[in-house]
Amino acid sequence: MAKEICTMNPPLRSPWIGTALRAAMARLRGRFETNRRDRERRDAFLNLLRLDDQILDDIGVTRAEVARAARLPLRLNASDALAAKAHARRKGGIG
């Protein structure tokens, strides 16, 4: 029995499909990497809650300010928000 050889050519794909898929995967990888970095930064920020109130006072922030900043969305930098809040409080602004 002779082997049958398939002589059909596979359907041609547009070259832009591979390019578009690679670009989409690169964007997805970038988003995952950004999320991972944001989570690591927030985990480090949460260590402030382990400090006692005297040390937080020496730093110039309150426990409530730290807790409020920790509840911000991950895409926002909690350290920057905390610093702005503490600066405003020291300047006599928002308390």
Task: Describe it.
- 6% of the residues are buried.
- The N and C termini lie far apart (90 Å).
- The protein is rod-shaped.
- The protein is built from four helices and no strands.
- The model has no long low-confidence stretch (mean pLDDT 87).
- It is an all-alpha fold and 95 residues long.
- Helix 3 runs antiparallel to helix 4.
- The longest helix has 32 residues, at 15-46.
- It has helices at residues 15-46, 53-59, 63-70, 78-90.
- Helical content band: 55-70%
The backbone outline, from C-alpha atoms, is rod-shaped
Q: Major sheet: size, sense and barrel closure?
A: none
Q: What is the H/E string?
A: HHHH
**Strand count:** 0
Mean pLDDT: 87
Low-confidence segments, given as residue ranges, are none
Estimated structural class: mainly alpha
Q: What's the tally of helices?
A: 4
% residues in beta strands: under 5%
Cα-to-Cα separation, first versus last residue: 90 Å
Rg (CA only): 26 Å
Short précis:
63% of the residues lie in helices and 0% in strands. The chain has helices at residues 15-46, 53-59, 63-70, 78-90.
Structural key phrases:
single chain; 95 residues; mainly alpha; 4 helices; 0% strand
Describe the SSE topology.
Layout: H1 15-46, H2 53-59, H3 63-70, H4 78-90
